[in-house]
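To illustrate the input format used throughout this study, we show a single complete record. The first block contains the structure-token representation of the backbone; no residue identities are included at this stage. The design step must infer an amino acid for every position from geometry alone.
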């Protein structure tokens, strides 16, 4: 989602900052980053994440990524959904 907002393949994020954003221990981020790196989905080094294969990365994420992505994109578009109240 950060990549969507910044429109770049390279993200400057530390394990610590990711762990705070997600509310998980830093060690969990380290394990997940290692798994993604071994699968050649990302390259991670010293606070810099390079997304190597966005399509496979999305495919390995849970369904909540697509739901949140779509809802946030719709919200940011400023369009109202039929049947929902709007201000």
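Output of the design step:
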């Amino acid at each position: 989602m950060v990549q969507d907002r910044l429109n770049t393949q390279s993200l400057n994020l530390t394990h610590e900052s990711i762990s705070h954003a997600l509310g998980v221990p830093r060690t969990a981020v380290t394990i997940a980053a290692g798994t993604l790196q071994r699968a050649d989905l990302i390259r991670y080094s010293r606070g810099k994440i390079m997304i190597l294969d966005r399509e496979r990365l999305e495919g390995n994420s849970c369904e909540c990524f697509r739901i949140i992505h779509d809802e946030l994109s719709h919200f940011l578009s400023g369009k109202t959904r039929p049947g929902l109240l709007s201000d």
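Structural context for interpreting the output: Residues 2-77 form a domain with the Arc Repressor Mutant, subunit A fold (CATH 1.10.10.10). The chain is about 55% helix and 15% strand.
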